[in-house]
């Protein structure tokens, strides 16, 4: 192939957010839009990460991925990349990409040094919906802010990019290597199985035999909903072939470019079919719900865990996994190096860390902050309130890993109960037992999506201004509601990375109360249009006789306070949030 230089000019708005660049497909389809971002990324990397390097390019298979992968292949070739690895049909979950970077070796021993992940995660897909792209580094984790800042700077000055225009499109639907000869030598594109490396890794972490026993009929029943995302490319292999689950326990497990028209976000609002099956819908289906249910988002890094007629709050999920990991999961048999959560995630994990005397870290929202801790051997298990849970087996959150972690805990607790008439320990039993031991963190998140960006900014500025006088805040608080505790401090969260000393400012507005309750306000960094305001509300209850309340009811005084304190309706014109989780 030949290399041609195409001249281009900067395009506004290519700043990577919490997890890469996410825009409407029609924005990505503008001339040079994708190309500029890809070249800005190549230019932000050190030369040895490009020239002669091996790169992974794949994602959740959403609409436009098949075009994007061919463009990136042609640009990689022109930039002197030696090999591009593509999952069959461009399918690789985000955790699988991380695993492939860390674990996979080519026939000649070659290893990947980075990846372009093509996904907009839980955002809908299709011609009128979202596409996205992000870059992951040699450790398998998202590029740190130092790199994403450089990428953004490069998008503002870009003048040209090289591309191998005459390189034929590669058939990404069949496995194998296609070799080309360019001005700088050989260039290979290898299409490989999307699941092999990931399945191998999962088998090295968990005791598949004990989970298989749990899943064998008739006692324990199971259900998994991939919401037509890329998790479907793994679910059949892992749950049915390896672990013996019934075929009909899989819902929406065929990956689709538009996620079947749905919103591939695993929560009680969007995972409707699973919610109904688990007995959490508005009306009962008449069929006894399974003991365990779970769902994933588009790129399979998120998870929702459900028991029979029971929802597990993600902040509790990571705390429960941390509290039970050591006996139940072989990977952790020698202990946990430490645990971490994102700032808005509830403090349920903090209580476990304290009681088990584990190192503990609180980081800004977004998985990239956990990676440094893990690379330094300081953290084994971590999680976010946004249905993200994971461990140091890779450098991304991992939806299927979380399901296998829960199944391992259930298998461990039910070792003696699978035969005969003894009662099973259920998901609900495990959660209630956890609350009895550690206390309960009532938790909810309100999202106001697609709010006018200027108004959202004003609301945030109003909340920051209020923070300058705590006595003034408490006067307002008492005027709104007399039975909440006093605000003890308020700030904007700032994080100093304990490994590299880098500082991230303005990571969310916090109001902290004397009884441990918290209100947190942030603007989303993953939307593609307007602004999304996230409001996180948390209240700690230590008294075991009071941990069984309905969460929205328990939190209603704090919710009311948060809405009035922030003047939510006044600024946004919204009387209710778009989604409550
Ligand atoms: C959201 C979540 C955050 C998560 C991020 C990426 O970010 O709040 O916890 O890490 O999405 O997840 P934001 O900035 O919109 O609040 V995913 O599954 O979209 O890669
Ligand atoms: Co995701």
UniProtKB/TrEMBL annotation:
It is an enzyme of class 5 (isomerase). It holds the Pfam family PGM_PMM_III. One of its GO terms (biological process) is glucose metabolic process. GO terms for molecular function: magnesium ion binding; phosphoglucomutase activity. GO terms for cellular component: cytosol. CDD domains: PGM1. Transmembrane segments: none annotated. Its EC number is 5.4.2.2. Coiled coil: none annotated. Residues 14-161, 196-306, 315-416 form the Alpha-D-phosphohexomutase alpha/beta/alpha domain. Belongs to the phosphohexose mutase family. Catalyzes the reversible isomerization of alpha-D-glucose 1-phosphate to alpha-D-glucose 6-phosphate. The mechanism proceeds via the intermediate compound alpha-D-glucose 1,6-bisphosphate. This enzyme participates in both the breakdown and synthesis of glucose. This is phosphoglucomutase (alpha-D-glucose-1,6-bisphosphate-dependent). It comes from Arabis nemorensis.
């Amino acid at each position: 192939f030949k290399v041609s230089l195409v001249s281009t000019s900067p395009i506004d708005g290519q700043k990577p957010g919490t997890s890469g660049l996410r825009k409407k497909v029609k924005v990505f389809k503008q001339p040079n839009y994708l190309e500029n971002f890809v070249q800005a990324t190549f230019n932000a990397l050190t030369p040895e990460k490009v020239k002669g390097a091996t790169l992974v390019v794949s994602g959740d298979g959403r609409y436009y991925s098949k075009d994007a992968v061919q463009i990136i292949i042609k640009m990689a070739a022109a930039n002197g990349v030696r090999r591009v690895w593509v999952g069959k049909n461009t399918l690789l979950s985000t955790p699988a990409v991380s695993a492939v970077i860390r674990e996979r070796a080519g026939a000649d021993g070659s290893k990947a040094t980075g990846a372009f992940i093509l996904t907009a995660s839980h955002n809908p897909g299709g011609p009128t919906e979202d596409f996205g792209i992000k870059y992951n580094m040699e450790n398998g984790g998202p590029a740190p802010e130092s790199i994403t800042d450089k990428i953004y700077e490069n998008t503002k000055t870009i003048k040209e990019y090289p591309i191998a225009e005459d390189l034929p499109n590669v058939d990404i639907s069949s496995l194998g290597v296609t070799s080309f000869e360019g001005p700088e030598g050989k260039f290979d594109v290898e299409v490989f199985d999307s699941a092999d490396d990931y399945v191998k890794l999962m088998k090295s972490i968990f005791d598949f035999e004990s989970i298989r026993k749990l899943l064998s009929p008739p006692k324990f029943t199971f259900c998994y909903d991939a919401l037509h995302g890329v998790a479907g490319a793994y679910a059949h292999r892992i749950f049915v072939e390896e672990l013996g689950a019934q075929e009909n326990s899989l819902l929406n497990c065929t990956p689709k470019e538009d996620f079947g028209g749905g919103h591939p976000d695993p929560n009680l609002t969007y995972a409707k079919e699973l919610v109904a099956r688990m007995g959490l819908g508005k009306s009962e289906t008449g069929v006894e719900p399974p003991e365990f249910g779970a769902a994933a988002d588009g790129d399979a890094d998120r998870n929702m865990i459900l028991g029979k007629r029971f929802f597990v709050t993600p902040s509790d999920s990571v705390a429960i996994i941390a509290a039970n990991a050591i006996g139940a999961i072989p990977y952790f048999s020698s202990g946990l190096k430490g645990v971490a959560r994102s700032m808005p995630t509830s403090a349920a994990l903090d209580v476990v860390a304290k009681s088990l005397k584990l190192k503990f870290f609180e980081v800004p929202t977004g998985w990239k902050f956990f990676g440094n801790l893990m690379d330094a051997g300081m953290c084994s298990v971590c999680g976010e309130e946004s249905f993200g849970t994971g461990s140091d087996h890779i450098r991304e959150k991992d939806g299927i890993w979380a399901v296998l972690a829960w199944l391992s805990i259930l298998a461990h607790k039910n070792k003696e109960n699978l035969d005969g008439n003894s009662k099973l320990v259920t998901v609900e039993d495990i959660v209630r037992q956890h609350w009895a031991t550690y206390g309960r963190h009532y938790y909810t998140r309100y999202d106001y999506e697609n709010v006018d960006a200027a108004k959202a900014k004003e609301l945030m500025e109003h909340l920051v201004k209020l923070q300058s006088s705590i006595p003034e805040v408490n006067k307002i608080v008492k005027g709104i509601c007399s039975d909440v505790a006093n605000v003890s401090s308020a700030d904007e969260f700032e994080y100093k990375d304990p490994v590299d000393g880098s500082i991230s400012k303005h990571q969310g507005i916090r109001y902290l109360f004397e009884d441990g309750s918290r209100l947190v306000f942030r603007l989303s960094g993953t939307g593609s249009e307007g602004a999304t305001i996230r409001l996180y509300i948390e209240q700690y209850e230590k008294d075991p006789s009071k941990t069984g309340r309905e969460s929205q009811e328990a939190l209603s005084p704090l919710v009311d306070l948060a809405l009035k304190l922030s003047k939510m309706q006044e600024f946004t014109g919204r009387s209710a949030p778009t989604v409550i989780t």
